[in-house]
Structures are given as C-alpha cells and as structure tokens.
C-alpha cells in the first residue's frame, strides 16, 4: 500500500485530498446543516461522498485519470456553489481549490477547468451585482489575484510534471541504450507471474546475448561496441509488437517478455529476432554481428527467478553449441 502511494503521484494526491476533504469539510457540513444552511451543507456532504468514491475507485482500478477529473469538476462546481451561496465569505475558499486542482489532473486540464470556473464566476458577478461580490473593485481584485494564483500554480505543476517524468525515465531505463533497465525487468517479471497465476495468461521469455562481444570491443574499440548495443534495441523493437518490451539485462545481454504467446510462436519469434540481428546489424568492416538466444515459456507454479534461470541455461547451451542459434529451455 505504501509502495503504491510512493510510486503513483496522482493516487497519493487523490488519497490525500480525499482524506483532507473528509476531515475538513465534514465538520463544516454538519455546522451548515445545524445552522439551517441546507444548500451549502448538502453540497459539502456531496463533496465528501464524491471524495470517498473517487479515492476508492482509484485504489481498486489503478486508474487515476477518471477519478482525478471527476474530483476536479466536483471542486469547480463546489467552489461555484460556495461563492454563490456565501458571497464574499465563500471567495476565500476558491484559493485552495485553485491549487488543489493541479494535484488531481494534468496541468493543462487543471488550467482549462480553472478558466471555465473563473469565467462563470465573472459572468455571474457581472450579471448579478451584489450576489457574489460586494463591489466591482472587489470583483476585479478577486479576478486579478485568482488569475495570478492559477498561472503560478500552472507553471509550478507543469515543471513538476516534467521533472517527475524525467525521474521516472531515469529510474526505469538504461542510460546507454534507452531499453528498460534491470529494475523494470524484475517488476515486469513479477507482474507476469501474477497475471499467469490469476488469469492464466501465457508468457514467454527471450534472452539474447551478442556473440563474441569482447572481440568486437577489442578489435573496433569500446565506442563501436556501445554503438552496436544502441543499434540493437531499435532493431529488436522493429520485429516486436509495441507491448513486448526490451530490457537490458546487463552488458550485452537483453531480455524480451512476450505476453499471450504459445511455445511454438515464441520459438518462431526468437528465430526471427536472431535472423533479424544477423541480417540487419553490421560491424565497421561490414561483417555481421550475431546473437545467441535462450527461450523459456513460463510454467505454472514457477517463480520468476526459476523462469529466468531456465532461459539463461538455454542461452548458455546456445553459446556452448556454437552460438548464433536459438535453444529452448
Ligand atoms: N562497449 C561495451 N562493452 C560492454 C558493455 N557492457 C559489457 N561490455 C563488454 O562485453 C564483453 C562481454 O564479454 P564476454 O562475457 O566474455 O562475452 P562475449 O565476448 O560476447 O562472448 P560470448 O558471449 O561467449 O559470445 C566484455 O568485454 C564487457 O567489457 C558496454 O556497455 N559497452
């Protein structure tokens, strides 16, 4: 649970905002109902209920986009109702709303929603003098300060989003080749085991290792070796489906996890990759580079270490038998 909160920013925010609404708005709702302000009291209670439902949905499905947007719209409608019903007293609540929204949806969406909210308030304020704002000076001051707050919140949220994406990219990809890294591989192997156990999905593992890579480095230099590793990833990806990710296992070893595949199809795909590398990749002297491949279908009851080990043993055998071939583990 804590790990999910740590890994998923929007889930953490939905949970935080949900908890804050329950804790902070519930007493207000009770007070409003107690003092006879039923419209605002019921609106507050609806907001509390929406916050609970949205957090529950996000935790259950893992989808934070729909509940985030839902809560952002609820906030906007809530802010509007509070302003119309409480007048000047309600305006102060718009400021935390302006900031909260950036924690729930993407910065552009949040900014768009705020534009709609502030424009609606502007129209109401202009057409119904005295209902929300006490004077036109107050109205102008409100729109200038809310616009500035929205703009700065947007800039801050936008920069944070870029940095979050970059951090995620750095944590999940191999810096040389751009393939997914070993850490991501471990996570995906665990997910595959889980999907196989729960839904019976079939998974295959392809482990590839470039042949005589040390000699390539020695003969053409480390830079050429690096270039070969960088070139290999798009070559493999061009022969794979988009959702079959390539991972760098380490050194010149790469892994592909293939979902929804039969043993025969996995072998055919591995052969296609082996042949593709041999045909499409060249060394500076125009000679071909080859790869040895070990494959293994996930077996029921097997853990990911045992599955990977079988593919590794098959790869070892492929090397032992003369390289540039596929061996089934
Ligand atoms: N250029 C480059 N070389 C690397 C990188 N990572 C590992 N290597 C080299 O890859 C070579 C792997 O050598 P070995 O494990 O002996 O394997 P090999 O020469 O490919 O021989 P076989 O696998 O048996 O065909 C080593 O020389 C490593 O230094 C890297 O990021 N860039």
Describe the structure.
The structure is a single chain. Helix 13 links the parallel strand 4 (291-297) and strand 5 (326-328). The longest helix has 37 residues, at 136-172. By secondary structure, the protein is an alpha+beta fold. The chain contains 13 helices and 5 strands. Strands 2-3-1-4-5 form a 5-stranded mixed beta sheet, with helices on both faces. It starts with a helix and ends with a strand. The structure holds guanosine-5'-triphosphate (GTP). Residues 176, 209-215, 217, 222, 225-226, 229, 251-252, 319, 323 line the site of guanosine-5'-triphosphate. The chain crosses the membrane at residues 9-31, 37-57, 69-88, 94-124, 131-158.
């Amino acid at each position: 649970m804590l790990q999910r909160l740590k890994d998923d920013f929007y889930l953490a925010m939905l949970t935080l905002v949900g908890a804050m609404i329950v804790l902070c708005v519930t007493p207000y709702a009770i007070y409003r109902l107690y003092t006879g302000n039923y419209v605002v009291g019921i609106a507050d209670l609806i907001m509390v209920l929406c916050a609970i439902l949205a957090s529950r949905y996000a935790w259950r499905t893992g989808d934070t986009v729909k509940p985030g947007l839902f809560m952002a719209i609820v906030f906007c409608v809530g802010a509007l109702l509070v302003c119309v019903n409480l007048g000047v007293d309600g305006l102060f609540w718009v400021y935390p709303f302006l900031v909260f929204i950036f924690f729930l949806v993407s910065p552009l969406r949040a900014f768009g929603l705020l534009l709609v909210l502030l424009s609606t308030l502007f129209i109401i304020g202009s057409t119904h003098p005295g209902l929300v704002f006490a004077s036109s000076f107050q109205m102008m001051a409100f729109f200038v300060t809310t616009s500035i707050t929205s703009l700065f919140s947007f800039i801050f949220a936008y920069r944070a989003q870029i940095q979050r994406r970059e951090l995620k990219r750095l944590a999940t990809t191999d810096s040389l080749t751009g393939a997914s890294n070993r850490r991501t591989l471990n996570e995906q192997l665990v997910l595959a085991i889980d999907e196989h156990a729960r839904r019976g999905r079939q998974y295959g593992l392809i482990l590839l290792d470039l042949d005589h890579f040390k000699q390539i480095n020695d003969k053409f230099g480390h830079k050429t070796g690096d270039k070969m590793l960088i070139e290999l990833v798009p070559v493999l990806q061009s022969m794979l489906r988009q959702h079959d990710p390539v991972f760098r296992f380490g050194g010149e070893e790469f892994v592909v996890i293939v979902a929804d595949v039969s043993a025969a199809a996995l072998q055919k795909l591995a052969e296609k990759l082996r042949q593709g590398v041999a045909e499409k990749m060249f060394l500076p002297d125009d000679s071909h580079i080859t790869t040895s491949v070990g494959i293994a279908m996930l077996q029921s009851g097997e853990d990911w270490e045992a599955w990977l080990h079988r593919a590794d043993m098959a790869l070892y055998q492929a090397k032992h038998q003369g390289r540039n071939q596929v061996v089934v583990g």
